[in-house]
Amino acid sequence: MSTRWTKSTLIFGGAAIWGLLLVSCVVSDRTIVAPPKIAGANYVGTKKCLECHEETGGHFADATHAKLALKDEKGVDISCESCHGGGSVHVKAGGGKGTVINPAKTPEACFACHLDKRGEFALPNAHPLDNVACSDCHDLHKGKAIARTGAELETPNETCTKCHTAQKGPFLFPHQAMQEGCTACHNPHGTVNQKMLVARDANLCLRCHLEHPSTVSVSGVPGVIGDGKIAVGGEDHRSRLQNGTCWVAGCHEDVHGSNASKAMRY
Ligand code: HEC
Ligand code: HEC
Ligand code: HEC
Ligand code: HEC
Ligand code: HEC
Ligand code: HEC
Ligand code: HEC
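Above: inputs. Below: predicted complex with heme C.
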């Protein structure tokens, strides 16, 4: 998250020297710049693309990837082709399918720069890229590539609930954690844990729910630090946590929200 690319590192030459530049264009530990190649194709420039694709590409100026502002050796903007590959063959054919890269059909164009994402999607629990495309969750042609606006809490969740309708609600007893977004508990690219959870045990919930032991009183005597109590919701959960995760059968099974139980037990 911390490293930002600088424009000057990204203005470089034509197709012939991509390979060389690749090595020198490591802009962060996660992202390198290596536009995809199409055999026999050269770059034609963004202006050319927009002659036919104004509708799709016309708002690209405010897109996250517009900041890259990739240029060829003559200074021509080749932003579109940084994801779609050189366009000359496509343009010569008058457009059409199969002559230019469509990342909805393959994530390879994205992996070329986002090397680390290939690894995340290879983890034991990940979205299956045969059925789900990067562009199902990221809009690359306009606005922020990550849907997230402070004003609209719904936005990041809608990215997910258009497919996962069961988690959408509204619920009679909603879980406030959902306001932080699905990513409060899931990494949608993939994790080592079941259901792409960001933690595999009670820590997933205790991050937000652990209370001071003094909230638990036994015979009118409040708990103190060091007495071993695990205070959650004003109750000592020590023995409960021995049953397994917080969401095992019989506990908080309906963790996304419930229509029957305030404690989301079913
Ligand atoms: C002469 C007009 C024209 C130009 C110029 C043009 N395209 Fe296209 N493009 C088309 C047409 C027509 C299609 C097919 C649309 C369809 O069948 O739905 C297409 C399809 C595409 C597709 C989908 C391909 C697929 O296999 O699914 C992409 C991606 C694309 N163009 C990107 C670009 C980019 C990037 C540029 C600039 C380098 C560009 N186009 C320039 C006319 C053009
Ligand atoms: C950061 C990567 C990226 C960049 C840069 C990019 N695109 Fe795309 N493009 C995609 C992805 C992903 C898809 C497939 C899903 C979709 O339609 O959003 C796509 C699909 C397309 C399509 C076919 C589907 C359609 O909506 O017609 C066209 C045409 C297209 N892009 C044109 C452009 C143009 C023109 C530009 C430059 C202004 C551009 N793209 C820049 C990633 C990118
Ligand atoms: C030419 C290289 C390149 C290509 C191709 C590329 N990206 Fe990126 N992308 C970048 C760079 C550079 C950043 C900024 C990274 C950073 O801040 O560390 C970025 C940022 C992002 C972000 C994060 C935005 C944010 O707000 O933090 C997303 C999401 C993203 N890209 C998705 C994609 C997807 C999906 C594709 C394929 C359709 C793609 N990218 C293709 C270079 C690329
Ligand atoms: C199922 C939805 C989903 C899919 C599919 C998906 N992403 Fe993401 N991606 C997200 C969400 C949500 C975030 C924001 C994560 C956060 O805020 O913690 C994100 C963040 C990112 C980021 C910036 C932060 C980071 O983790 O580096 C990049 C880059 C990125 N995605 C690239 C990709 C690429 C490339 C693909 C396809 C190979 C892809 N994503 C597929 C949902 C998705
Ligand atoms: C384009 C549709 C689509 C979108 C959008 C989508 N998913 Fe998925 N998701 C799937 C598919 C397909 C699977 C794998 C099949 C399955 O197990 O249900 C899956 C699986 C999952 C699983 C594991 C389910 C299981 O039973 O193991 C979780 C958790 C999940 N997605 C969370 C998310 C989150 C969080 C987001 C938003 C960032 C998201 N998904 C966006 C289609 C989608
Ligand atoms: C408070 C943490 C938390 C939040 C926030 C959260 N989830 Fe989950 N999710 C879980 C847990 C825990 C499981 C595992 C439940 C189980 O295995 O019984 C799960 C399981 C899932 C599954 C697999 C099906 C199932 O119910 O077992 C899907 C799909 C899913 N979540 C999608 C989402 C979506 C979409 C969002 C956002 C709208 C979201 N989750 C937000 C904790 C959370
Ligand atoms: C991102 C923070 C966050 C995470 C993670 C989280 N919660 Fe919550 N949860 C809340 C907030 C905020 C409330 C509402 C205030 C309260 O009751 O503490 C809440 C309320 C609840 C309630 C209802 C309490 C009541 O009786 O009204 C239960 C039960 C619950 N959470 C269980 C869980 C479980 C189980 C997990 C782990 C799968 C979890 N929470 C993870 C933030 C979180």
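The chain has a mean pLDDT of 85.
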